[in-house]
Structures are given as C-alpha cells and as structure tokens.
Amino acid sequence: MLEYGLRFLAGGIAVSAFAALGDTLRPKSFAGLFGAAPSIALATLLITLSQKGAPFVAMEGRSMIVGAFALGAYSWTVCVLLKKFLLSSWTATVAALVVWFAIGLGVSVALFRLP
Amino acid sequence: MIVQFKPSALRQTRWYEYLVRFVLGGAMTVVAGLIAARFGPVIGGLFLAFPAIFPASATLIEKHVRARKEKAGLPGARRGKEAAALDAAGAVLGSFGLAAFGLVIWLMVVQSATWALVLATISWFAVALLGWRVRRWL
Fold it and tell me: Which residue of A has its CA nearest to B59?
C-alpha cells in the first residue's frame, strides 16, 4: 500500500512539474515537447528498481520504446483531428486513444510474441 | 525562433486545474505499476508512455487561448484548437525523445541504474530538441 502511495505522490509531482514547465514555454510547438516527457517513467522507475531489480526495469525500457512510437502516432492523430476535422480538444484526445492502444498493443504482440 | 520562458503563464491556470493534473498523473503512475505487477514488464513498460494527462492538457490549452482571444474581441474557438494542435505536433517530436529514453534504460540500466536514468533523461531532451530544430529548418 505504501508503495502505491509513493507512486501516486511521485507521479503526481512529476507529471504536474513537466506540465507546468510546458505552460511557461513559447512557442507552443516547443512546449509540446514536454507533453511527451518521461514523467511517469521517472516517477516510477526508481521505485520499480528497488522493488523488482534492474532486469525488470530493462524490459520496461524496451517496451517503452514501442509505447513512445504509439504516443507519436497518437499525438499526430490528435493534431489531424484538431486541424482538419476541427473536433474539440477533449473529443480529439480521447478518440485518438484508440490509435495508442492499437499501435502499442499491436506492435508489442508482433515484436515480443505476447500470447 | 527564440524559445521564451514566461512564468506569468502559470497564473492562467486555476488551482483545480493543477489538482486535476496531479491526480491524473498520480493515478496513471499507480495504474502503470499495477499493470506491470499483473501483466509483467513488457506490457507494464508500454504504459510508461501512455498519454495520461494529454486530454486534460490539450483541453486547458484550447480553453486558455480561446478565453484570451475572446477577451480581446477576436473569435477564439479556432485559435484555441490550433494552439492545442501545435502542442500535439510538439509531442510527436517529443515522442522520439521518449523512445531514446527507453532505449538508454533498456541498454544501460543493468550496468548502472543511476547513470542510466541520468543519461536517459539527457537523451530524451537532446533528441526531442534536435527533432524540434530539424522540424523548424524543414
């Protein structure tokens, strides 16, 4: 329970800090870089290292590469939905989650031979 | 184009908007941990790159830009969407940096966890920044 409390606190602080930093930067395209900051990873990897060890974290790092490319495809889809289809930000960002799941899980199944 | 740092922009964000980000970020970190514990590191690692607060952030950007434009007597709806789209375009470039972060962790963490985390963070920023500069040159 304490572990998950620590994760919550660390994740909340890391995500808020990167998001606040993004708010203060201009132009918006540069600030957007912080939308793909490793905030959850930084918050969680130290705890995972102490609990599960380095080989477990190495495997997570490998999968994170796939997750990052899924995030790239997701962000591009959000951009298209906002600019071409003029959807609201909320609708576009929630609808595009389908892309993240499809690419992330699809590529993981194909590359890592998941059942 | 010069990158500007404007701390005054923080005043646009209301306290409950910070709270939403904090709770979403914390909750997603817990969920990523639970997924890794239940399904193992392959699926768990994937969720370290989940766009957890993207919907909340993009909605905030759209709302703030729209409000600013409308206050100045300009139609703000489209400008708000364009600002959120620009932020998303930046995140596309940032995701290459995130992939570099994962790569360094994968290759180095068994040798030295501290150095892996430090170098992974530097790699994230360097690759994201390079992508942004290249995008501007094109």
Answer: A89
